[in-house]
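Structure first, sequence second, as always.
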């Protein structure tokens, strides 16, 4: 299984790893996805998938999952090295707000600081998956093809 961090790096010009996500990229702001860059993909990378997940969200599902999925994106070609802010490129899945695309951080008021994990998964083959997959549907299809991954963590707290 390829769910092991790799030497691939994921960064954003909007915020550093461990720093606050600008309001512009949250549900309290313009709610546009942040720009992202990645470097040093594993040898043999032919595609990518991207997920943003808030493990601090106070939600637990009967099947044992937890947190809140803010973004599911896939069918990203292997020669891509990033995405522009607010990009509509690639194929959007369904997030936990039941929307396609990005819905940024907006934790419950008074809930404190949340961490948002932007996970980039490198795949050993390109994908041509249909739009509208949930995180779990996506992972079921790509898991055998994940050859590396890494994350960028941003934080946000409602004022």
């Amino acid at each position: 299984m390829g769910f092991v961090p790799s030497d691939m790096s994921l960064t954003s010009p909007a915020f550093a790893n461990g720093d606050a996500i600008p309001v512009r990229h949250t549900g309290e702001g313009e709610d546009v996805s942040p720009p992202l860059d990645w470097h040093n993909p594993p040898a043999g990378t032919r595609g990518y998938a991207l997920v943003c997940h808030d493990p601090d969200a106070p939600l637990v599902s009967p099947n044992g999952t937890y947190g809140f999925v803010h973004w599911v994106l896939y069918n990203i070609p292997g020669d891509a090295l990033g995405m522009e802010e607010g990009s509509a490129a690639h194929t959007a899945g369904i997030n936990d707000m039941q929307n396609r695309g990005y819905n940024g951080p907006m934790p419950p008021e008074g809930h404190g600081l949340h961490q948002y994990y932007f996970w980039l998964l490198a795949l050993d083959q390109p994908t041509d998956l249909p739009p509208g997959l949930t995180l779990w549907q996506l992972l079921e299809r790509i898991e055998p093809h994940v050859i590396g991954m890494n994350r960028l963590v941003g934080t946000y707290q409602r004022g």
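Margin note: The beta strands are 9-11, 36-39, 47-54, 68-77, 82-83, 91-92, 114-123, 146-156.
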